[in-house]
Amino acid sequence: MWSVVFATAIGDKTVDRFDCSISQLSRYIGKPGTLSATIPIPNQGIGDRCQAIAGRAGQLTAYVYYGSDIWWGGTVDTTPLKGGRAGPSLDITGSTFDAYLGRREVRTDTVWSQVEQLETIRTAWNSVQSTADGNLGISVPAVTGSGVLRDLTVLRSQARKWADVIKEVSNRSDGYEWLIDVYDDGTGARFRELKVGYPQIGRAKFDQVFSFPGSIIDYTYDRDSLSGATSFQSSGDSVGPAYNGQAQPLMSTLGAYDATDLLATGFLRFDSTTPRQGVIDANTLNAWAARDLARAAGAVPFLDFSVRIDGFNQSVLGSVFTAQIDDFTFPQGANGAPGYIGRHRCIGYEVHPAERGAVDEIKLIIEQN
Fold it and tell me: 155 and 129 in contact (C-beta within 8 Å)?
């Protein structure tokens, strides 16, 4: 059911297609996904074809299909040929196209002064694709402005990766989301497209329902105090006078971002300071601290689901689904409704291969509120 298509990184010309087994496959909003797959070599013909793929990491891209649908697309990172008691195989690893910004440096002094923030991601991709040897063929459409303006200076001498620069902008309290979408239009033509959204990537209405018992295989519900805090502050770059010869970083307002409501109910004080590289504005640091307070005050709720792959639609990424649970932990209500009914936004998924004879599982990474 799983297959992988190899294509040239430049020009996207199909090289070959193989059946494969998946060890790891993941896609996310906000961070790169990965691939680890194995192509078994049962005969000389397949071996000769795999020889044409091996050693071409950095030159090829891969598209992973489940049936006729593309579930993953990205660059090929390694292509080791293996052999032994289990028989010969070609193993491949890869990174989603989103990861390419982490392989490219800002090689021109770049100054953003009151620039619409959604233009920063377009600038990044237009820059890395401005030469033929860096052009992955990713379309970069115009975007509707968010109304949020940004200042940022990045110097060539800093040798910063584009991924770090964009993370600094997009992860702010009123930042944006982006990813590289890969899809087949139904005719066999493949497309790679930048998707940008403020405050979230917009998706067409998609309301898949997962239930336990049923399509949900496992679930986890927790409130994790190790991931939260009750007093937050942010630190920026050094701009103030030195103390004992040591330059001091700019800080957010002390005590302004405490979870006073939780502390009043008996929560312990847990401190959290997050460094924000490149920030030299106090208001920006305060906004970061306020964002951290809103997202991680107290014990952070944690919820995830593993679902059966049959009936799962990979286009749920970025959309909302409904989860229903009916068991001893969440027993039915008086009206017979499941004990737990929740709507959650999926921001990532990971394929977990099942044991022989069972179906593969999908772990849904959801936006934790």
Answer: no
| Sole residue written with tokens 């497209």 | 193
Superfamily designation of domain 2-100:
Baseplate protein-like domain - beta roll fold (2.30.300.10)
Give every CB contact of residue 341 below 8 A, 6+ residues apart in sequence.
322, 323, 324
Q: Where are the alpha helices (DSSP H) in 111-225?
A: 118-128, 162-170
Q: Mention every residue, 6+ apart, whose C-beta is less than 8 A from residue 179.
A: 27, 28, 29, 30, 98, 194, 195, 201, 317, 318
- Backbone φ, ψ for residue 62 (5° rounding): -135, 145
Give the DSSP letter string of 243-301. Answer: BTTB--EEEPPTTTTB-HHHHTTTPPP-EEEEE-TT---HHHHHHHHHHHHHHHBSSEE
Q: How far apart are CA 290 and CA 232, in angstroms?
A: 8
Q: What's the whole-number mean pLDDT along residues 282-309?
A: 87
Q: How far is CA 201 from CA 72, 81, 312, in A?
A: 18, 39, 20
Mean per-residue pLDDT over the chain, rounded:
90
Amino acid identity, residue 119?
E
- Has residue 205 got a pLDDT over 70? no
Give DSSP secondary structure letters for 29-75.
SSS--EEEEEEE--SHHHHHHHHTTTT-TTTEEEEEEETTEEEEEEE
SS3 call for 227: helix
CA torsion sign, 115 to 95 to 292 to 165? negative
Cα of first residue to Cα of last residue in the chain, in angstroms, is 35
Digit-coded pLDDT (tens) for 228-256: 899 999 998 887 676 777 778 899 999 99
